[in-house]
Specification:
Length: 227
Amino acid sequence: MSGDAHILVVDDDARLRQLLSRYLAENGYLVSTAADAEEASRQLASMEFDLIVLDVMMPGENGFDLTRRLREVNDVPILLLTAMGDTKDRIIGLDAGADDYVGKPFEPRELLLRIASVLRRSSREAPHRAQTVRFGRFCFDLDRHELSEDGNVVYLTTAEAALLAILARNAGETLSREAMADLGGSEGNLRTVDVQITRLRKKIEDDPRMPRHLQTVRGRGYVLWID
């Protein structure tokens, strides 16, 4: 099962985050990443995920503690990545509320199978929920491509909605103009991306000249910040 499933990968190892993000995306999943529990918490406050792939050994709040904290308020499925070989430690993870675990090092194919298994179980247990991204007074429905401000629908053209969907699915990550043009079907037309960014800012920013949410990262592209 992949389809529109959205996975949050939480690991302090930047190289592993990148590899997992690429591998899961190549296998049909939508992927967001976080380097630690604090960043993961921010993303979870603004987006809904179908599964969290969570490293146990992280600086600050570790994976066990984050799992316990999330289970108090959130039923999102959690798959732990653990380098610990002790059965006791794996039991601790399951007891904390994790749905499954994979030991490091792991075969990528095994991880895919475990993810698919957890998602199948969770889909039988809970109805589909719309994925939404919140920033400031705004909420963007990723299923409907619909933007609302304080509950009131904000009109978007098809092109604006498509571009905002790309940014929202990758909230907090800088996307190049080339990547957005390709993902948005603009056939490499970078000027079109710039025009749509300008139009979106007029609709979501108090002062489009000093954007708070949709910012330019000089020399790299654009990023949608959530809070």
